[in-house]
Amino acid sequence: MDNMTVRDMFLLRERNILSPYAFLTENTRGRDHPYVPCVNRTEFQRDRDRIIHSKAFRRLMHKTQVFLLPKDEHYRTRMTHTLEVAQIARIICRALRLNEDLCEAAALGHDLGHTPFGHAGEDVMRQCFDPSFTHYAQSLRVVEFLEHNGEGLNLTWEVRDGIVHHSGGDLSGGHGASTLEGVIVKFADKIAYINHDIDDAIRAGILTNEDIPKRLRDTLGNTHSGRINTMVTDVIDASTDKPEIRMSDGICEATMELRQFLFEHVYLDSAAKSEESKAKDLLARLYEYFYEHPDKMPEFYRNNAESCGIGRSVCDYISSMTDRYAIDKYNELFIPAAWQRVSD
After folding, report:
1. What is the pLDDT of residues 212-231, one digit of tens each?
2. Burial class (CB in 10 A: 0-12, 13-18, 19+), 332
3. Which of 42, 62, 144, 246 maximizes the CB count within 10 A of its CB?
């Protein structure tokens, strides 16, 4: 025992206190490339730290969640969304005695590949590059290849599995991720964005709390925190001592109805989306320009154009952009400098 490292003590603690349904770190499938274990951190703790210190993670602070470049700094960004997902995921995971480190790492990495301007950018990449493009597959590409100039973050298999399987509208059956911790990320993602997007829409004057159907408020709660608490508590109650993560039928149905309400009143046709077509046009023009002029991309993406194909490399470059970088690049390429000085 005297020769045990901090990492050894963490692994022993997992064996002693976690649920029989938890994924133990010692059972990881490992990483794609050889590595020397850290004496002070387990593999999943190390993955969490690699994600937090990545450039892709830092860029999330300047990427749209729903509202494009809002002047009010209290609106969510892709970064604050990610932090809320990780917080909700940790609460659920801890209550179920599952592997909190695995769950947190996957939650923090789940949106690393998201495009500028939110799902509007994702739509443009589908139109310009590949109809099968998704932000979650791009997130996997970020951690497996794009970070560290083509070396990737060399994350464990289980964290990558949780990242790539976090999406999908349904919360019933066939959740995709191979671990319960990965499945929790999917639930936490839904709980987070459904509730914080309502909160932002109310802040923007697009909705009022009373616009939410009364039956949903009666079932889920009449406040932002109340609805989150209802959903989180229900997942914990429905999943305790079970080899699955689920909601009760009633809360699941109400949650999906609330999500559909958001699509109808916020995501598809509201003031939040009034500028979205302009953002799409901007990204489409950038894609077209760099596809025709790959030599104008940064060196890393220029080199990848030769090995991965021009379209793939342009997609990687544009997907990596923050909202403001995309706007600045558009102004640099298409707006005369004299006009920019006049507007300033």
Report:
1. 999 999 999 999 999 999 99
2. exposed
3. 42
